[in-house]
Amino acid sequence: MTFVRFLGGLKTIGGNIVEISQGNSRIITDFGLTQQSSQADVKTLLAKHDLPAVPELFLPQINKEEYVHQAIFISHLHLDHTAALEYLKKNIPVYMSRASYELYQQLVKSGLATNLKLDFQVFDPEVPVKIGNLTVTGFASDHDIVGISSLLISDGKHNFAHSGDIRLFGDHYDEVEKWTKKFNSLHLDLFLLEGTSFSFPDDKAGQLEQLQPEVNREVECGQRFALALKSLTAVPVVNLYPRNIERLVRFQKLALANQRPIVWEPAFARLLKHYLPAETIFTQTAGITGTTVVTWKQINAAPQEYAVQNSFTNLKQLVKLNKFAYLHADGGPLGDYDPDYLQLKAFLVGQNATFQRIGTSGHASKRELVKVAEMVRAQKTVIWHSFEPQLAEAALEANGLVTFLPELNHKYLFK
Ligand SMILES: [Zn+2]
Ligand SMILES: [Zn+2]
User: Fold this and answer.
1) Domain residues for 79?
2) Which residues, given as ranges, of the chain have pLDDT below 70?
3) How many angstroms does the Cα of residue 201 sit away from the middle of ligand 2?
4) CA 89, 95, 99: angle at the middle one, nearest 5?
5) Which ligand is nearest to the CA of 16?
6) Which residues form the Metallo-beta-lactamase domain (predicted)?
7) What is the pLDDT of residue 205?
8) CB within 5 A of ion ligand 2: which residues?
9) How many domains, the chain?
10) What is the pLDDT of residues 96-121, one digit of tens each?
11) 247: CATH
C-alpha cells in the first residue's frame, strides 16, 4: 500500500511539497517555502503551515523512526522549492541533479547562497535511485534555471510524477518532449503539474492563447538585449538572476559579440568564470583570478563601450554612472507585489534612467500547460503551484483530461 500526502503548495505559487510512502520507505519531493520567513521558531512555522507537516524532520526531540529509508528530492534550486531545507534537522539525504549541485556549490563559493550542512547527494538524468521500496528517476527539463528536473516516483506498481516548474519553447523543449513521452507510456497514476499561469481569477480559463512553438523565448530575450546594446547611447544596466546561468552566459556572449562587454559584480564574475573559464570576464573590483577590472570612471569615459550588470542590493552603486538605461531581465525584485519593485522604479526616476523589461518567464502559458497535460495524459492530473488551480482544472477537463484537486495533509491510498 502506497500513500500520497500533499504537504503544501496546493493553492500557492511554490512551497509545493508531496510525500510518497510505502511501509518503511518515504520520498519527499521539493522542500520550499512560499515566502522567506523572518520567523525562525519552528513550532510557530509548523502551526501556521509555513513549514510542511513533518515535525519529525525539524524537531530533533521527536524520535519517530517510522521510516528506515527516506530521502528528499529537489526538482530545482529556486527558493520556493528549497527554502525549508534551512530548517531541516534530521540527517536524511537530500538529492538533486548533478547540474543543480554544481550550481549550488558555485553559488556558495560566490557568496550567493548559504552553505547548508546537509547530506547532499546527486542523481543523473534517467538513472533510477532506490530508496527502500521506492525508486526515483530524474529527467532533464526546461525552466529558467540550470539543473531543472522532472521526477518520477515508482513503487513497482504505481507511478507518480512531479513536473517540476516547466516551460515549453525555452532552450530545452527536446527534454520536455522526451519525459512527457516516457510518462505517457507509463500511464501515470498521478501527474503533479505546476499551474503558475493559472493564477488570476479574472482570467477566463476557456480563453487560451495560441501555441507559438516556433519561438524560442530565451533567444528572443537575448535579441532584445542585443538590440539594446546596439541602440542605447547611455550605459545599458542589466538586472539578471544569478541562478539562470544559461541566460548569464548568453548575455555575456552577446555583449562580447556586440563589442560592449558587461562589467559584472564580483560575485557574478566569480560564478561566470566557473562556467566560462576561457572567456574574458570584466568586473568592478580586483581580486578574482582570471578577470579584468573596469572602473566606473572608465565606463563613464566610454559609455558606448560597456554594459553593466547590477543587482537590486547594489542599486545605489548606479549613482556613479553619468547616464544609464535600466534593462530588467528577471533579477529581483520581479514585480509590483514586491515593495522593492516600487523602490527600484522610484530610484530610476530619480536618476533619469529609462526602464525596460527584456526578460521572459520560466513558466508555461495556460495553453502550454494544457498541452503538457495532454502529452502526458495521466490517469489523473493534479494542478498545484497555482493560486487558482480550479481554473486549470476547468481548462484540462474541457480538453478531456481527468483532474484531481487534493486536500492538504490528507493521506491518499493507492492499493
Ligand atoms: Zn516554483
Ligand atoms: Zn522555479
Assistant:
1) 2-206+365-414
2) 36-39, 201-207
3) 22
4) 130
5) 1
6) 14-223
7) 52
8) 78, 165
9) 2
10) 999 999 999 999 999 999 999 999 99
11) 3.40.50.10710
